[in-house]
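WARN no homologs supplied; continuing
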Amino acid sequence: MTTRCHAMPLRCFTEEQAPVPGTAAQPVRYPACEWVGDDSGAVDHRHPLNQFVCSWLTSDMAEVSRCDEVLHAMVQIEDGTRQEWFADGDAFQVDLQIQDVQFNPSHVGPEDAAYWNQPEGRFTLAEVKALLRLWRDFLAESARLNIP
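OK structure emitted
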């Protein structure tokens, strides 16, 4: 399923990871997404929207309730009832403010200044909110259709 948000196409899908050959393990299925930069359908996995936002959505935002929590905080930031909000996850630490949203890998701390608050990990609140909303709707629809 590919959804489009203004000029930001987001392809959401269920990924299946095959088990290690020779084991009795079952395949693992999980929701995933990727930002598609243009109408060609080509995906640049090195693009910052894929490296940061889509990786965050897939890894740390895999539940509708978590998406709703962050979306609620974003609305509060937009209406001025909250100045900032911090979302810590397995893959990313995300600092949300009205002027921008900053993504930092969870394994990197502020003392690692060379890798902290990099400009390629910074996006507008509107961009992140739009992609998060599309992702949340995909997760909700998948749950409604009982797609694992």
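Strands lie at 2-5, 8-17, 28-35, 84-88, 92-97, 101-105, 122-123.
OK
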